[in-house]
Amino acid sequence: xxxxxxxxxxxxxxxxxxxxxxxxxxxxxxxxxxxxxxxxxxxxxxxxxxxxxxxxxxxxxxxxxxxxxxxxxxxxxxxxxxxxxxxxxxxxxxxxxxxxxxxxx
Length: 105
What we know:
Layout: E1 6-20, E2 26-34, E3 40-46, H1 52-65, E4 69-79, E5 83-92
Parallel strand pairs: 3-5
Antiparallel strand pairs: 1-2, 1-4, 2-3, 4-5
């Protein structure tokens, strides 16, 4: 049995763009610089469906991440010459206060 390699990466977000795939699913593409190593990281996070709420959530997250220090759980890392490409299972701000909304629990 093989386990997928997972990484936890924290760094300054240099670019964050919300795109839409050909299937109509929002895709968040985050470029950041890893704080520990200085390595450039490009992470992609796709949402589960193409609903209006998924698009709004992706756009809101893209706006809030720009210029911030973000933390992500990376899966399927692919090492390139000067950067690390990966899929992001979770993206968040490490200093963000937890939500108190009951519908998110």
